[in-house]
UniProtKB/TrEMBL annotation:
This is MATE family efflux transporter. It comes from Pseudonocardia halophobica. The chain crosses the membrane at residues 42-62, 83-105, 125-146, 158-179, 185-204, 232-253, 273-293, 305-324, 344-365, 372-392, 398-417. One of its GO terms (cellular component) is plasma membrane. InterPro entries: DinF-like (IPR044644), MATE_fam (IPR002528). The keyword Disulfide bond does not apply. Coiled coil: none annotated. The lineage of its organism: Bacteria, Bacillati, Actinomycetota, Actinomycetes, Pseudonocardiales. CDD domains: MATE_DinF_like (cd13136).
Length: 443
């Protein structure tokens, strides 16, 4: 497997992964000029909405796994058909999110905000932004099937077009027309209309090129996708509970502790984007190899991608270690925060090679459709490693050292579990279709 194949898929996937965080940065900068209350309202509402959409990323990762196998078997119309069914799921779930969002906007904003001006600002945003939920989920489904057929160029163009529009609209609506925080939500929805529309047009073009592609919902395929989606939702929930708990515990050690944790966590999220791009390449290539019947080829792809992940992790470790004297100071000038950052920093640096391998193997196993195993091991690592240690650290007063020791244990448990799974080869079940006959859990 040429390294350039992995590089091409990863490099094109990375800007798509980074588009949403970059949009949030632009949005934050624009809204921040309105004052503290609107910015706080955006923070409350944005975090809530992001948690919901992140929990539904099975529409991307699950669809990639299923489409990639069919693509590898030379059955492109059926691979695209998986995208059609994922799009129907996206529309149905997105409309449900929209309806529930309207009902719970006020009580949730009151619970997360101050019950006063900040909550009022958050509610205004939350009344508008959920109209984009079906569109965001259509985009996730579109990314999924296009990655499955190893087309990462079009999603890149689509997402850049939408985010470019939002970057222009946001300041115009927020400040130019005086819509305030609500203008930010409108700009967000407008961008999502463009991106989702482009993915829907792409499905229409596939139908024109391959008339056998059905645009009608097919319940057996939808049920199969939802079954895999259940495992991926639970896996994502494990991550979210861990990181939300870590922030909650850090906050109880004081402002400097939570600020230091936030700085290091944002850097962790940055490197996770790069490692996720490699994992996406692994998903597409491993799924295609297994779909073409090449279990040994899939194992070879896995070994190579894992090496790339390890190399990337080592490079990150060296870079972040070298930048320690200057990088934290770019995020904060507060002396107490800077004094606290080292408690987390060297855990963060030491974990880079481990993270490089774990993210790469996650991509391999996701590409193989081994979602149930990833669900189980992630929840086990959370319950047996991360969560007990960070809550004990609260009682014992261990501060960020305890929190990041918990994160290290979480990563090491996952490292051992996914490493043994990969070494066993039980995940490498060939076949064009994921199902009982090709379920890695059956082996």
């Amino acid at each position: 497997m040429p390294a350039r194949q992995v590089l091409r898929l990863a490099v094109q996937a990375l800007p798509v992964l980074a588009a949403e965080p970059l949009y949030v940065l632009v949005d934050t900068a624009v809204v921040g000029r309105l004052g503290a209350v609107p910015l706080a309202g955006l923070a409350v509402a944005g975090v809530l909405f992001a948690q919901v959409t992140t929990a539904l990323n099975f529409l991307s990762y699950g669809t990639t796994a299923r489409s990639a196998r069919l693509h590898g078997a030379g059955r492109r119309p059926e691979a695209v058909g998986e995208g059609v069914q994922a799009t129907w799921v996206a529309l149905a779930v997105g409309l449900l999110v929209l309806g529930v969002g309207q009902l719970v906007a006020r009580p949730v904003a009151n619970a997360l905000g101050d019950g006063g001006a900040v909550a009022d600002a958050a509610v205004g945003w939350l009344r508008i932004a959920p109209f984009g939920a079906p569109l965001i989920l259509v985009t996730l489904a579109g990314n999924g099937w296009m990655r499955g057929v190893q087309d990462t160029a079009r999603p890149l163009r689509y997402v850049l077009a939408g985010n470019g529009l939002s970057a222009v609209l946001c300041p115009v609506l927020v400040h130019g027309l005086g819509w305030g925080l609500e203008g930010s939500a409108v700009a967000n929805v407008a961008a999502q209309v463009v991106v989702a529309g482009l993915f829907l047009v792409a499905l229409g073009r596939e139908k024109k090129a391959h008339p056998e592609v059905s645009l009608l919902p097919r319940l057996p395929l939808i049920r199969a996708q939802l079954s895999m989606g259940r495992d991926l939702i639970l896996r994502t929930a494990g991550f979210q509970i861990c990181f939300l708990s870590a922030t909650a515990v850090a906050a109880r050690f004081g402002a400097s502790a939570v600020a230091a944790h936030q700085v290091v966590l944002q850097l962790w999220n940055f490197q996770a984007l790069v490692l996720d791009a490699v994992a996406i390449a692994a998903q597409a290539l491993v799924g295609a190899a297994l779909g073409g019947g090449g279990a040994e080829h899939a194992k070879g792809v896995a070994a190579q991608v894992i090496r790339y992940g390890l190399i990337l992790g080592v490079v990150f470790a060296v870079v972040f270690a070298a930048l320690y004297p200057v990088l934290p100071g770019l995020f904060t000038g507060d002396a107490a925060t800077l004094d606290t950052i080292p408690e987390a920093w060297w855990f963060f640096v030491a974990l880079q090679p481990v993270a490089g391998v774990v993210f790469a193997i996650d991509g391999v196993l996701l590409g193989a459709g081994d979602a149930a195993f990833l669900r189980t091991t992630t929840l086990l690592a959370a319950v047996a490693g991360f969560l007990p240690l960070i809550w004990i650290s609260l009682v014992a007063g261990w501060g960020l050292v305890g929190i990041w020791t918990g994160l290290s244990l979480f990563m090491l448990i996952r490292f051992v579990a996914v490493g043994l799974r990969t070494r066993s080869g039980r995940w490498a079940v060939p076949g064009a279709v994921l199902g009982p006959a090709s379920d890695p859990q059956a082996g």
